[in-house]
């Protein structure tokens, strides 16, 4: 028994060095050659960092495309979902409220035009994407607010759509931050 | 839509393409035959020398279990104190606080037992140091513990009669150097180049496009996320686990993480057949496991793609299915596949919030964890399956009036008793635990605890009951996923699930190893016309029937009160 205890202690110490020092340092070194140098890829506008490429952020102003509802208010240091069950009456009331508010800001919409991703919270609370339909319903509002041609905005959305992986696998999405930065750059 | 289903098929096929050769490789590694990774031998010799281990020293099954338990207890004590004092230790750039004693107790058990139930949130509850030397360290070694235990079990059936079952330390070290570490390195680099952070920079701060001030948690997550999946651990670097865009940046990485968590469990089944020179047996086992997976997967995907009927009534369009708690870049289809994979295999990492899944999806998730043997966790999946197999041998033996035998060894009263005890343990822990929690919730809701029991649940009614049932089931299965709405970071849940975790890990390891050790030491009886063959289609279906009947009998009443009742109220 005593032999096993000593062997366990020594083996633990050796493996701590191998797995917790050497391994992560190799990964960190390799990662320093990636796009964000291992710290996450950033998006800049006029030389100013305005966000991370992968992290959604809160958009509430009418001149921007809006992202999905977030249970944590897009807090990037406290991710999480709503964890509301599908039959929870308070939750269903909340979803209904989101539909009403979308209809208020987009009076030209019918209920059936709204895709459900625009009224349900994401798992991480930081979802950077919306569906193509979710972007499409906002084009008219954004164009009106920015006094832009609707077609011009629609073209920009089209350009931002990311199709399925390798054209074959998974859904099509729109990155909201990327789209909004492109919009801001368009104005000049 | 179709592209979402293609994604599932492609991901599963790619899993097999990697897992089958990996199984052949593992059989050779653990049999000590020549393999191309033998250039790592000097590193292993160095590890043995520094640790005072002689890898040639033979152990019987009891010595194996002593070695296993000793090193696991060392990790428990070591990790508990590091977590308690993490605020005072270095590498804490975000100045996160220490863990409370009950949280540290739960966390350390949870990581030692390969469960990774997390009652803390990675961004605020742990430091870069503890994420490395406690969480990530244990993700490697707990997976290696499971694999080494499975190899001991393989050894018992390789030769006709065996008492010397190899050296535990050798299996354990090789599981790391020949399997987990090289694969983790490859995967970590893939993740790092897909956007997962890998350096040690602290929280960042920026002003968003519309002018909000935002703090961003980061840290060396890439290496962590790799072993979290390869070792079927599941504990996330960030609170939202693999739903977090930095932990799982794209559809591509989602498939990589899905493949990573399934390859070792499947490879272990393949390796078993090659190792004991009975390939047909392992293909039969693989077949039963795959049918089991499909039986859970197909209804899961159908229930998720159908969307939430209550939201459908509001008149909005559910394009591809239910979206609450899910990420747009994955979509509901492959998220459904993930939820099946992560519950049948004891990973428990999530790329969506299971609490928000459709009621029937919750049912299949719970069943996957209750059965816990369709592929199953790293190494331990095979051990769990073996228990069902022994019960099936016993029942079929009785049915046809033959002495129950497995691979030429008589299965007698002692082995059956152990198998029965292990089988009864899961329902006992899950149901008694849930009953205790429900009792405290209903009759002592106003107890003057720091967190009042009546505030535990995030959802009313049947779904609230499911939250408690899920927590106990996940703990017993060493899964680690949760209906995360449950307010579980308090003394009741930390302590109760701590015990469930511990028992749910070690008894289902020691039980099967004991049976294998006892059987392996018995005299070998040559096969005759009277032998009950275990590698036939009939026997495989018998095993599947045993799995279904045992679990249905144990859990049907509890499942009726939770997900089934919710389902029927939702569609009415």
- Widest β-sheet, arrangement of strands of chain B: 1-2
The protein's oligomeric status is: heterodimer
Largest sheet properties of chain B:
2 strands, antiparallel
Main β sheet profile of chain A: 3 strands, antiparallel
Strand order of the largest sheet of chain A: 3-5-4
In what range is the share of β-strand residues of chain B? under 5%
Structure description:
Chain B: It is found in: Cell membrane. Chain B: GO terms for molecular function: P-type potassium transmembrane transporter activity; potassium ion binding. Chain B: It holds the Pfam family KdpA. Chain B: It is a multi-pass membrane protein. Chain B: Keywords: Cell membrane, Ion transport, Membrane, Potassium, Potassium transport, Transmembrane, Transmembrane helix, Transport. The complex is a heterodimer of chains A (188) and B (572). With 188 residues, chain A is mainly alpha-helical. Chain A has 2 domains: 1-33; 43-187, no CATH class. In chain A, 44% of the residues lie in helices and 9% in strands. Chain A has 6 helices and 5 strands, in the order H-E-E-H-E-H-H-H-E-E-H. In chain A, the strands form 2 sheets. In chain A, strands 3-5-4 form a 3-stranded antiparallel sheet. Chain A has a two-stranded antiparallel sheet with strand order 1-2. Chain A starts with a helix and ends with a helix. Chain B is an all-alpha fold and 572 residues long. Chain B has one domain. Chain B has 18 helices and 4 strands. Chain B has helices spanning 2-31, 41-51, 61-84, 101-112, 122-125, 128-158, 168-194, 222-230, 251-275, 279-305, 309-312, 331-344, 359-371, 380-400, 413-443, 461-476, 491-521, 537-571, and strands spanning 204-207, 213-216, 405-406, 409-410. In chain B, strands 1-2 form a two-stranded antiparallel sheet. In chain B, helix 3 packs antiparallel against helix 4 (101-112) and helix 14 (380-400) crosses helix 17. The two termini of chain B are 28 Å apart. Classes of the chains: A mainly alpha (188), B mainly alpha (572). At the A-B interface, helix 1, strand 2, helix 2, strand 3 and helix 6 of A face helix 1, helix 2, helix 3, helix 6 and helix 7 of B.
């Amino acid at each position: 028994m005593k032999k096993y205890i000593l062997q366990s202690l020594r083996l633990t110490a050796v493996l701590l060095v191998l797995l917790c020092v050497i391994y992560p340092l190799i990964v960190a070194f390799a990662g320093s050659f990636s796009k964000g140098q291992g710290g996450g890829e950033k998006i800049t506008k006029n030389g100013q960092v305005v966000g991370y490429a992968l992290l959604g952020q809160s958009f509430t102003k009418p001149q921007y495309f809006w992202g999905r509802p977030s249970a944590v208010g897009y807090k990037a240091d406290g991710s999480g979902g709503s964890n509301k069950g599908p039959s929870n009456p308070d939750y269903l009331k909340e979803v209904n409220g989101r539909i009403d508010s979308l209809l208020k800001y987009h009076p030209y919409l019918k209920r059936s035009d709204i895709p459900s991703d625009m009224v349900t919270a994401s798992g991480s609370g930081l979802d950077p994407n919306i569906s193509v339909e979710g972007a499409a319903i906002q084009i008219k509002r954004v164009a009106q607010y920015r006094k832009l041609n609707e077609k011009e905005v629609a073209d920009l959305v089209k350009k931002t759509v990311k199709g399925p992986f390798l054209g074959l696998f998974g859904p099509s999405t729109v990155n909201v931050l990327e789209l909004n930065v492109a919009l801001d750059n368009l104005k000049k | 839509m179709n592209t979402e289903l293609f994604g599932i098929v492609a991901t599963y096929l790619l899993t097999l393409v990697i897992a089958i050769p990996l199984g052949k490789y593992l059989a050779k590694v653990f049999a000590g035959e020549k393999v191309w990774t033998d250039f790592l031998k000097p590193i292993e010799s160095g590890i043995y020398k520094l640790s005072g281990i002689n890898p040639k020293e033979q152990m019987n099954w009891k010595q194996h279990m002593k070695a296993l338990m000793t090193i696991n207890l060392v990790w428990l004590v070591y990790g508990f104190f590091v977590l308690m004092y993490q605020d005072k230790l270095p590498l804490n750039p975000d100045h996160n606080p220490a863990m409370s004693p009950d949280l540290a107790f739960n966390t350390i058990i949870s990581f030692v037992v390969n469960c990774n139930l997390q009652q803390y949130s990675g961004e605020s509850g742990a430091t870069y140091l503890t994420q490395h030397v406690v969480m990530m360290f244990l993700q490697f070694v707990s997976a290696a513990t499971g694999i080494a235990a499975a190899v001991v079990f393989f050894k018992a059936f390789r030769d006709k009669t065996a008492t010397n079952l190899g050296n535990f330390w050798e299996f354990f070290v090789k599981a790391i150097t020949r399997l987990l570490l090289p694969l983790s390195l490859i995967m970590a680099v893939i993740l790092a180049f897909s956007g997962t952070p890998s350096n040690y920079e602290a929280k960042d701060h920026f002003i968003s496009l519309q002018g909000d001030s935002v703090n961003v948690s980061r840290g060396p997550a890439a290496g962590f996320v790799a072993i979290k999946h390869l070792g079927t651990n599941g504990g996330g670097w960030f609170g939202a686990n693999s739903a977090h865009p930095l932990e799982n940046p794209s559809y591509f990485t989602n498939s990589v993480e899905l493949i990573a968590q399934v390859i070792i469990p499947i490879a272990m089944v393949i390796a078993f057949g090659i190792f004991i020179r009975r390939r047909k047996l392992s293909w039969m086992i693989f077949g039963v496991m795959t049918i089991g997976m499909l039986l859970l997967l197909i209804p899961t995907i159908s229930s998720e793609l159908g969307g939430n009927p209550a939201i459908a009534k509001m008149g909005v369009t559910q394009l591809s299915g239910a979206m609450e708690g899910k990420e747009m870049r994955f979509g509901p289809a492959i998220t459904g596949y993930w939820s099946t994979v992560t519950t049948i295999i004891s990973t428990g990492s999530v790329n969506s919030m299971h609490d928000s899944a459709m009621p029937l999806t919750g049912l299949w998730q719970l069943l996957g964890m209750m059965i816990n043997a369709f592929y199953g966790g790293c190494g331990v999946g095979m051990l769990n399956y073996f228990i069902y197999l022994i019960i099936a041998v016993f029942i079929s033996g009785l049915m046809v009036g033959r002495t129950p035998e497995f691979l030429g060894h008589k299965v007698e009263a002692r082995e059956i008793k152990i198998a029965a005890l292990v089988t009864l343990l899961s329902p006992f822990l899950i149901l008694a635990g849930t009953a205790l929690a429900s009792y405290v919730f209903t009759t002592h809701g106003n107890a003057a605890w720091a967190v009042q029991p009546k505030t535990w649940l995030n959802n009313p009614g049947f779904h609230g009951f499911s939250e408690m049932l899920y927590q106990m089931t996940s703990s017993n299965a060493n899964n680690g996923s949760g209906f995360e709405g449950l307010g579980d970071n308090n003394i009741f849940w930390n302590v109760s699930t701590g015990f469930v975790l511990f028992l749910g890990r070690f008894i289902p390891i020691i039980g099967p190893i004991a049976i294998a050790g006892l059987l392996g030491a018995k005299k070998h009886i040559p096969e005759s016309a009277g032998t009950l063959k275990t590698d036939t289609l009939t026997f495989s279906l018998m095993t599947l029937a045993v799995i279904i009947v045992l679990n249905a009998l144990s859990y049907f009443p509890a499942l009726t009160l939770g997900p089934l009742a919710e389902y029927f109220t939702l569609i009415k």
